[in-house]
Amino acid sequence: MSRSNDKKGHYRSGIASVFILVIMGLPSVVQAAAGYYKLDETKWISVGGGLKSSFKATENGNVTGDGWSTNSTINNFRIYVNGQLHKYIKFEFNTECAACEEEGDITILDGILKFDITDYFNVWLGRMLTPATRGELSGPFFQNIFEFNRTPFYPSDFSGENREAGRFGRDEGMNLWGALGAEKRFTYVAGIFRGHQDAPGPLYAARLSYNFWNVEQNPGYYTSSTYYGAAGDIFTVAAAFQYQDKGVGTSENSADFLGTNADLLIEKVLANKDVLTLEGEYQYFVPNLDQAALAAANCFCIFEGHAYMATALYLFSQQVWVGQFQPYVRWTDNRPSNSSDRNEVEVGLNYVLDGHDARLSLFYQYGDINSKGRVWVPGVEGEKVSAVGIAVQLQLR
Q1: What is the pLDDT of residue 52?
Q2: Exposed site from 14, 88, 132, 173, fewest CB < 10 Å?
């Protein structure tokens, strides 16, 4: 996820043709640093982009059930366009091309009209992230490690036939957000969204957080999963929920969806300037699906049960060549109520060249999430397997 302030682009931009027209119509955009073009004190536009690519080898991952399967992919390719039309009115329009070397489809990721009024109260309308976990609100480009969180997704991360409830954590709707208190330590976001298209009513979502140490500085209600020590000492706890009446199941056997989560981020700059980062997450989903819905081929069957995630990272302050080394370990445990557990340990090493804008990663995973999937799917079982990967993340914003 790209981030914006008054001089930098925030999100993925629209269709490729629109992007070309923007560049053709505003040649100065390309000439300016980070694609920033200022019309006057209250009108500006910026253009940027992000790329994540990886090579991953998974044990017993091929169709024969033996050996190793390999996958080289462009995980994310995004174009960011961000702008301001008025002192209180901004916009964002961004694209995504996930695994685009396979499908070649560029899709609209965000399309937001923003009324940024005060620190205490703001309104965003359009297609945007629904309030959820820190991982969701950090997006793939502001995670502390390369692979996205392996805990279960909320409905807005599912799409396709019989699964129209959003895409990439986004949905159409409205969010109200702001920060309260003298030091703005308490932040909130609450929204109403379309949710699952077959449900009779909307999806309701909200997230509350409190900053005990330094207040996190992010655009809007978005988050980051690390600041590499640049934000000082961080200790933030948060909780979120989503609810939709008859939001899961089938039209004949529907059920109400309720999902909740709590998460925390602790980042401490040590006396030797090294940075310790700790992140934790807990999820509890209660879709209450009956057996008739679970057995249906067209069921929108969301995860039901508990899930846990914990990550620890240590960033060495000493620069080695042009970057810094950051070893880490992540543990994920998904416990569906209607199937066996899925868990995984991942250890890895980040080589941080320029924060979230330039980073290399090497990682090893062991568990059954790669073989079983992160959520329960009828008839899908698997043994614990190993996987290794190497990845790169780049952004211009």
Answers
A1: 96
A2: 88
